[in-house]
Amino acid sequence: MSRWSRFGSTLPFAVALVGLLAYMHSLTAPFIFDDATAITGNRNIGRLFPVAFSTRWVVNLSFRLNYVVGGFNPTDFRAVNLAIHIAAALLLFGIIRRTLMLPRFEARFSGTSTWLAGGAALFFVAHPLQTASVTYICQRYEAMMALCFLATLYAFIRAVTTESRAGRMLWAAASVLVCLLGMGTKEVMLAAPLVAVVYDWIFIGGSQPKTRRLRVGLHAGLLLTLVGLAAMEMRMLATMAKSGHGITGNATPWIYLATQTEVILHYLRLSVWPSGQCLDYAWPLVSGWGEVWAPALVIVGLGVATLYGLVKRSGWGFLGTFFFLVLGPSSSLMPAPDAAFEHRMYLPLAAVLTALVLGGHLVLRPLVARTRRPLLVWLVIAAGLTGALAMTTHQRNRAYASEEAMWRDVLAKQPGNYRQRLALFYALFGRDDHHGAEIVIRDLMADTKAGFDRKESSDTPGRDPFFYHALASGQLGRLMVHSGDAAGAIEHLALAIRALPEHAVAHNNMALALGVLGRYREATLAARAAIRLNQGASRNYMTLALLLVHQGDFAAATDHYRQAIELSPPPHLALNLLLGWILATAPDASLRDGAEAEQLAMTALTATHARTVRGLDVLAAALAEQGRFDEALTRLDQALSLIDTAPTSAATDDEVSLPDGLSGWGPSADSATLLERRTRYANSLPYRAAPLPLKP
Predict the structure, then answer these.
(1) Is 62:140 a contact under the CB 8 Å cutoff?
(2) C-alpha distances in angstroms, 625 versus 428, 546, 618, 670?
(3) Whole-angstrom Cα distance, residue 206 to residue 104?
(4) 474 belongs to a structural domain
(5) Assigned domain for 450 exists
(6) Which helix (H) or strand (E) holds 183?
(7) Within 13 Å, how many C-alpha atoms sit on residue 645's CB side?
(8) Does the CA dihedral 40-41-44-46 come out positive or negative?
(9) Which helix (H) or strand (E) holds 21?
């Protein structure tokens, strides 16, 4: 067995290399799903300070740092996620290795502890189930929580096993500090102090009498971090209550727990045989325990075995306790909005894989020992399994290549998930595939029509036919507006509003449709209704500002554009340009501010590396407003050359999609329009905007 230790020091490097190889090709995948809420749609992401010390503030701060360094570059965000994942795998390696080197295991695993730990860490870093917390960027919450959790346990082990008193104190302090930091990553971290108690009970006990006082103090310190978590949780709950949001779903705790028995079995199946993964299951809630008696018996059996192992101070009891304690906050009696998400298994998977590695070693050891080269056999088994997992991870990451790829993957696996069929529509609409988007939205409406007519609802998020038929009708109306059929869209938008009168999006889309038709008074009322229903949505204020501009109310439009900018995530290029255009060209001299308009245009040009024609148009108008006509001509010539040399550059000009009937005002990317303005600037005349003629 001495040959085992010869290459053991290379295992941490192997873990890092396998992680890099498994995920390297996925780094350029786009933001997806809830990334919009946590990252690209987060209006505060550009502000490092102040830091709101509520739950998850640590991860939110890391997102802000990512943005400050590289903007909305998904590669940068995923690189940090991958670094966190590899670090967590290395900590798992250290925890298992040091545990197997404790006196109670030293004889049984003498010479193999490093390799067994390495095997578990390799499987952990390569397992495809982890893509839901690594490739899916916003679930850094889960991965960073796991990193802090494992770091807390690793430092605890070092504190109670280190020989020097100074070393023990330093490791103990580190354990408490990282645990406190972890309380700011995700609520599941509350299990860390409890896992440390269980670890001490099972593995340390009376074997380390000289550290008894230290351990008592250390446990007290770890448990005190729960006070910090409680304070942060109360602050978060107060914030959510103020905004009208909650953290629990509609299911009763009893029904949610019953549903979790089959969900947990599904997690365990994916741990052993990772096929059929799905980003968003919209897992249906069961109606009662009679539907899940078989999985419930299995889970109860595992729970009883865990309790027995805990009483007997068995290592298997620790792994079971670790699994249930970590999974418990999201998978027991507290109903989360969704019953199943794979990212919840990120840390519990460590216990499952450790059990499989140790169990496999104990079962196969007598057989492998009979071979001529047992070391080679173990290496082949470990390399084969790691390679298979890494290849499966590589394959799974292909689903993250685009929004369309992911939602078609979900559609194939969960066709009853209406939420992601709507997301597929958004993806197709976002890349101007109106034909494909119409097929998807009409299919969704057809599949939900019967349930809508019966006013059938569901407590399962993503599977409510009434709600999603109404949403789909509104989105079909939106599609028709952008396709040039605003009159035909009104009927679908009206249905959505009648079914969901408190849904701001439908009112906003109705405002756009009415505006395209020139029915500005009705459109303005609809836009104001959208703002009343959702005062935090930037798009609602932008729509109202646009309608006001078309009616000649530049002053009110300016105020609403500023409000839209305040509520939108950076860099809000289109909003900057629309506001800058008013400030540079408004007929009312009291509204014009060429210097601010120049600043807004330069912000857009800097963000796009001067590749925005509309940005150059605004800048030219701002310079002309200040009497700097030669500079204005230079900028317009730059815009004209950009149109000639890079006709696709218009894609960088606007981050907000507007229907044709409302997009005729403001900065332009049309060469004829720019040439007309150039003539004015050549004659030392600034440009003055005017509302478009009212439609009959």
Answers:
(1) yes
(2) 41, 22, 10, 21
(3) 11
(4) no
(5) no
(6) none
(7) 9
(8) positive
(9) helix 11-23
The one-letter amino acid code at 661 reads: G
Whether the pLDDT of residue 245 is over 90: the answer is no
* Number of Cα atoms under 13 Å in the Cβ half of residue 570: 18
Helices (H), 71-164: 74-100, 103-106, 113-126, 131-134, 140-161
What angle, rounded to 10 degrees, do the helices at 348-369 and 113-126 form?
A: 130
Q: What is the largest CA-CA distance in the chain?
A: 95
Q: What is the domain range of residue 201? A: 9-248+354-399
In this structure, is residue 198 part of a structural domain? yes
Distance (Å, whole) CA 9 – CA 625: 68
Structure tokens at 357: 């590695």
Distance, C-alpha 154 to centroid of its chain: 28
> Burial level of 476, CB count in 10 A (0-12/13-18/19+)?
buried
Looking at the structure of the chain, the number of domains it has is 2
pLDDT digits (tens, 9 = 90+) for 294-351: 999 999 999 999 999 999 999 999 999 999 999 999 998 888 889 999 999 999 999 9
Among 36-50, 125-139, 384-398, 611-625, whose mean pLDDT is lowest? 36-50
Integer Cα distance of 460 and 249 in angstroms: 9
Of 471, 496, 365, nearest in space to 419 by CA: 471
What is the CA 656 to chain-centroid distance, rounded?
A: 22
pLDDT band of 212, cuts 50, 70, 90: confident
State yes or no: pLDDT of 561 exceeds 90. yes
CA distance 412 to 421: 10
Q: Is the pLDDT of residue 447 over 90?
A: yes
Looking at 367, 399, 431, which one is the last position of a domain? 399
Cβ distance 619 to 674 under 8 Å?
A: no
Residue 20's CB is within 10 A of a number of other CB atoms, namely: 14
Residue type, 192: A
Q: Is residue 559 part of a domain?
A: no
Position 194, amino acid: L
Q: Which two tokens stand for residue 66?
A: 């990512």
Rounded to whole angstroms, the Cα distance separating 665 from 681 reads 19
Q: 583 is written with which tokens?
A: 């400030």
Q: Read off the tokens for 543.
A: 């729509």
Give the residue among 11, 194, 119 at the shortest CA–CA distance from 355.
119
Last residue of a domain, one of 344, 371, 399: 399
Distance CA 83, CA 467 (A): 40
CATH code for the domain of 613: 1.25.40
CB 535 within 8 A of CB 570: no
Tens-place pLDDT, residues 141-175? 999 999 999 999 999 999 999 989 999 999 999 99
- Token pair 């836009």: residue: 527
